[in-house]
């Protein structure tokens, strides 16, 4: 089992920016009547999501989220030592979006910046990578971005995904603090045999963009896609999501001898309510300790966990130290679980783009 | 595992279709109530009751409840 413990790094602030346009599942043109829409809402818990326009990227949402966070924290842009950008909706094939963000955010030229092209597991992976770099003690302040514009890399005529996925950017401020005595613990997991459970087949080097890859086709009744669009094979993702995340959390609990009765918050990737409730019940954490924001924002990939923290846990995170578990899981297939403590966090109100 | 119990567990995932409509030979994808959500309920039921995670293609390649039963039985061995 791959596991990691990090000391002396804490979360000191969090922010989120969402597009102001809201798409409600009750009024989507893809259903034959409202009853059909209500069935999907009942089983997934997802009522609506926020959606960017055709000129807005995840990095645009990110700039707003990071600028507001730095302002609230009283951090100058020149004080940031690391910027990690977790996102699969990159601005360009090259360069990394984090490089462009260094300039837009006026970060130092010797700032350590990089992209982490993870999906739904990304915030947890990002937390482990960024805090690990910080734990050496010389990189003292970091911003971990988890952002995605799912509505732009999926086909609006793909009825299987349109009701479920939304757009958001989140920023998590991390600080190296020798006096912070609460460790972070991580467990990792991956199963590349499921690479085609969630994937975009065309547009990379193995299958470059061709004229045919840009043609929209009806792949099953009522479901339209182009070769370059993201495919979500719902049944395979579901089978994976009800098996691996509970197993991963149980491994974390066992490996680090965690008393689940002391857990204040279980923070799950917001896949859908049905999946997340199965995970919650498997690790025996009460419903009132498991916040959701998917009803309002849908599945926002790597931004799901931090968006839940910003929108649903502000009071808890800004008060006394809380004991938290988190689990991200999805595209890869990849997953990761973590235990951490958070308190006195400056959590901003959600920003509208 | 036995087929009768599997059929009952299968039928329990449907609200509107009468339980008598389900037999080993039922072509489940022809049911009016069959949907992608019903498929997820079946995957969850098979996990809960038989501790097997079936794949999307297991459902796609099965026509009858017996076909799916055979897939689950094979995974359990």
Task: Give the secondary structure arrangement, pairings included.
The complex is a heterodimer of chains A (353) and B (77).
Chain A: E1 3-6, E2 9-18, E3 22-24, H1 34-44, E4 48-50, H2 58-73, E5 82-86, H3 97-104, E6 112-116, H4 122-134, E7 141-149, H5 150-153, E8 167-176, E9 184-190, E10 198-199, E11 217-220, E12 223-225, E13 231-232, H6 234-255, E14 265-268, H7 273-282, H8 294-297, H9 304-312, H10 314-318, E15 322-330, E16 334-342, E17 346-347, E18 351-352
Parallel strand pairs in A: 2-17, 2-18, 5-6, 5-7, 14-15
Antiparallel strand pairs in A: 1-9, 2-8, 3-4, 7-8, 9-16, 10-13, 11-12, 15-16
Helix pairs in contact in A: 6-7
Chain B: H1 3-11, H2 36-50, H3 56-60, H4 65-76
Gyration radius of chain B (Cα, Å) is 11 Å
The low-confidence parts of chain B are none
Share of residues in strands of chain B:
under 5%
Order of helices and strands of chain A: EEEHEHEHEHEHEEEEEEHEHHHHEEEE
Shape of chain A: globular
How many helices of chain B?
4
Total individual domains of chain A: 1
Q: Given this structure, which CATH class of chain A is correct?
A: Alpha Beta
Radius of gyration of chain A: 19 Å
Biggest sheet layout of chain B: none
Number of strands of chain A: 18
What fraction of the residues of chain A are assigned to beta strands by DSSP? 25-35%
Structural class, judged by helices and strands of chain B?
Answer: mainly alpha
| DSSP E strands of chain B, number | 0
Give an overview of the whole structure.
The complex is a heterodimer of chains A (353) and B (77). Chain A is 29% helix and 26% strand. Chain A has ten helices and 18 strands. In chain A, strand 15 and strand 16 form a beta hairpin. Chain A is globular. The interface between A and B is medium-sized, with 15 and 13 residues.
What would you say about this model in short?
The complex is a heterodimer of chains A (353) and B (77). Chain A has 353 residues and is of the alpha/beta class.
